[in-house]
């Protein structure tokens, strides 16, 4: 299997394969039957019936996979999600794209989808925040807003039956992107989250993780440093009206001076994204910052991040983190065994609070036995079910 | 010329019913949507897939299905005598068409309307059986690109020399003048998509050669499935489990 496009020395190759093996071991959670190839039969419960989802086909009563990937079951719906595939748009996704064509009343935008997306003239905000009908003059001046090869951020407005999609930029956070770097990764590495605009304040760098696998890295735009403080919507609206004159994409934004130091940080972040993409690890702000910091501690130039050695180290670091996380899981399993042993042949649903250090968020891990205690019991017992 | 020694060994030391060594690598081209190399002995082919993407030539756009294009070429260093092959190579044009039709039969084109899929296949080392090798490489690349297919499509060649059916001919055997039959089939659906042969042979011999080629293709299918499964597993496990 080849995915790394670096020249590696034999010792590096060995380290890489060892680290990948550790990653695999720690990842766990997957059953071998979760993966299917094209043309494989997907085991289904024929008695209860099932719904045929994406990536499957029915041939002579058998459910076959049409793509290679992971089987997902939601109630009766069975679908196969391919890993490396083009961007599969969903309404509301934040995307980064490049204008490929200026057509009558619309722009065509490359968003790494099966077709170019359409951005209608009526779906953009006119400069100055004026709300009015789009006239023939506006149509003639479309190139003043976006021309070919401009990079923009936008949101998916609607999807159509034939696979085409419409975008809109009707918010001040969307629009033309300038003075930064565009990095392309596989779309499956970017998870849909609440927030796709991130400001790494400590570096003065703005990060837009497009759901389509296009990542935009630039300096924090001066005007928006106070607006997109990711805070409550009411504040944001007030701030938006204030900064209407100096949104991104206006002529003022073009003349921002970016210091050498800042440019270097942008490059470092961009290379961190590239490395994570090459390793096939999930791309989110925490992992990017992690990689960034690792490159600083090893004291290497930004350009050296795109090398075999740093690639191997990134995989090794991830393996270490995963095995740590795995030990969390291990301890939870241990706890469950202890609980189960105490309750004489009565199993309970055990909820364990596990905090994952890297993302800093707390999630619930649920280990199932035959359930006897309801969730109401759990709450009355202060969040912890007591074994009988 | 004797293609089989009295011990039943062929020129390269194989037996009549043996395939050459198979090797495959998925994801060899970083910027492509899907890519793979496939080796059958000394024959080596690289296939690269771009798409499904916006149709480049607007009037070729089909509103109900995807447009599949294929370009076959041979590297100038792929054969014994080094030579440059131009655009007007008739063999290349014919092979492009064959590969395109075979892959189009496999791809569920109706799921990808108004888009285009480009398949580029290049022979890096030619030692007989390039047709089969190209189809196998293209399948791997398409599967890597996440393009929905009816089933994987696999291919293998077989011939008939010294009154013996022979599997997976190499260049020397291929130029021996006997029949050379290439078959491409869907292993799961049990359907044949491509069957090519340029010579005349009796029907009973044909059946023997045909069943041998199909048997070879099924062996190749097993290998391709293993390769794809390893690729999928590696990608999914690197990404980490979907839920905690």
From TrEMBL, chain A:
Keyword Ligase recorded: no
Q: A single GO BP annotation from the record?
A: rRNA processing
Where in the numbering of this chain does the RRP4 S1 domain appear? 86-157
Where in the cell? Answer: Nucleus
List, alphabetically, the GO terms of the cellular component aspect.
exosome (RNase complex); nucleus
Primary residence: nucleus
| Region of interest: Disordered | 232-255, 368-388
Gene Ontology MF terms in the entry: RNA binding
Keywords on this record? Exosome, Nucleus, RNA-binding, rRNA processing
Q: Does the keyword Cell inner membrane apply?
A: no
Record's Gene3D superfamilies?
Answer: 2.40.50.100, Nucleic acid-binding proteins
Q: Which domain of life is it from?
A: Eukaryota
Please list the residue ranges annotated as the K Homology domain: 180-219
Q: Which family does it belong to?
A: Belongs to the RRP4 family.
What name does UniProt use for this protein? Ribosomal RNA-processing protein 4
From TrEMBL, chain B:
In terms of domain of life, where is this protein from?
Eukaryota
Task: Please cite one Gene Ontology biological process associated with this protein.
Answer: nuclear-transcribed mRNA catabolic process
CDD domains xref list: RNase_PH_RRP41
**GO terms for cellular component:** cytoplasm; exosome (RNase complex); nucleolus
Report the principal subcellular site.
Answer: cytoplasm
* Keywords, comma-separated and alphabetical: Cytoplasm, Exosome
Q: Where in the cell is it found?
A: Cytoplasm; Nucleus, Nucleolus
Identify the residues that the record assigns to the Exoribonuclease phosphorolytic domain, covering every copy. Answer: 18-148, 151-215
Is Cytoplasm found in the keyword set? Answer: yes
- Return the similarity comment: Belongs to the RNase PH family.
Record's protein name: Exosome complex component RRP41
- Give the organism, scientific name: Riccia sorocarpa
């Amino acid at each position: 299997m080849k995915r790394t496009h670096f020249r590696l020395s034999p010792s590096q190759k060995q380290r890489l394969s060892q680290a990948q093996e550790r990653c695999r071991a720690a990842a766990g959670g997957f059953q071998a039957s979760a993966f299917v190839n094209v043309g494989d039969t997907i085991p289904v419960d024929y008695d209860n019936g099932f719904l045929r989802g994406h990536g499957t086909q029915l041939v002579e009563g058998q459910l076959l996979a049409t793509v290679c990937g992971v089987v997902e079951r939601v109630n009766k719906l069975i679908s196969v999600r391919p890993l490396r595939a083009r961007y599969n748009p969903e309404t509301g996704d934040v995307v980064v794209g490049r204008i490929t064509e200026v057509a009558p009343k619309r722009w065509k935008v490359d968003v790494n989808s099966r077709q170019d997306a359409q951005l209608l003239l009526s779906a953009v905000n006119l400069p100055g925040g004026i709300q009015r009908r789009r006239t023939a003059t506006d149509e003639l001046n479309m190139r003043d807003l976006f021309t070919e090869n401009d990079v923009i951020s936008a949101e998916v407005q609607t999807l159509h039956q034939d696979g085409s999609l419409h975008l809109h930029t009707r918010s001040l956070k969307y629009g033309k992107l300038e003075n930064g770097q565009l990095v392309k990764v596989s779309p499956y590495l970017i998870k849909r989250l609440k927030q796709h605009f991130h400001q790494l304040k400590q570096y003065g760098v703005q990060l837009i993780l497009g759901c389509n696998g296009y990542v935009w890295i630039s300096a924090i735009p001066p005007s928006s440093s106070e607006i997109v403080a990711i805070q409550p919507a009411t504040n944001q609206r007030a701030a938006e009206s204030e900064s209407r004159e100096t949104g991104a994409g206006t002529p003022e934004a073009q003349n921002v001076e970016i210091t050498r130091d800042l440019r270097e940080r942008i490059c470092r972040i961009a290379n961190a994204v590239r490395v994570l993409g090459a390793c096939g690890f999930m791309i989110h702000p925490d992992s990017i910052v992690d990689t960034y910091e690792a490159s600083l501690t090893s004291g290497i130039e930004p350009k050296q991040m795109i090398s075999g050695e740093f690639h191997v180290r990134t995989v090794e670091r991830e393996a270490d983190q995963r095995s740590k996380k795995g030990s969390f899981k291990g301890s939870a399993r241990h706890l469950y065994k202890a609980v189960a042993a105490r309750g004489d042949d009565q199993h309970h649903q055990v909820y364990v609070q596990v905090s994952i250090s890297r993302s800093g968020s707390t999630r619930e891990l649920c280990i199932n036995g035959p359930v006897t205690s309801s969730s109401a019991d759990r709450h009355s017992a202060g969040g912890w079910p007591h074994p009988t | 010329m004797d293609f089989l020694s009295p011990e039943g060994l062929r020129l390269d030391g194989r037996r009549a019913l043996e395939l050459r060594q198979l090797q495959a690598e998925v994801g060899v081209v970083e910027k492509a949507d899907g890519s793979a190399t496939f080796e059958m002995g000394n024959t080596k082919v690289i296939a690269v897939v771009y798409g499904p993407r916006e149709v480049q030539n607007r009037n070729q756009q089909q509103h109900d299905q995807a447009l599949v294009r294929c370009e076959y070429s041979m590297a100038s260093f792929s054969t014994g005598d080094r030579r440059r092959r131009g655009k007007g190579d008739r063999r290349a044009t014919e092979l492009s068409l064959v590969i395109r039709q075979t892959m189009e039969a496999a791809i569920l084109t109706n799921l990808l309307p108004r888009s285009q899929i480009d398949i580029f296949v290049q022979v890096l080392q030619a030692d007989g059986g390039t047709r089969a090798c190209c189809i196998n490489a293209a399948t791997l690349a398409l599967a890597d690109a996440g393009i929905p297919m009816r089933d994987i499509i696999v291919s293998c060649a077989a011939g008939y020399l010294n009154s013996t059916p022979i599997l997976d001919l190499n260049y020397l055997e291929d130029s021996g003048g006997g029949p050379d039959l290439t078959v491409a089939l869907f292993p799961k659906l049990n359907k044949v998509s491509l069957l090519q042969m340029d010579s005349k042979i009796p029907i009973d011999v044909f059946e023997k050669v045909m069943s041998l080629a199909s048997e070879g293709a099924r062996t190749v299918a097993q290998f391709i499935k293993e390769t794809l499964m390893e690729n999928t597993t590696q990608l999914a496990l690197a990404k980490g489990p979907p839920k905690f």
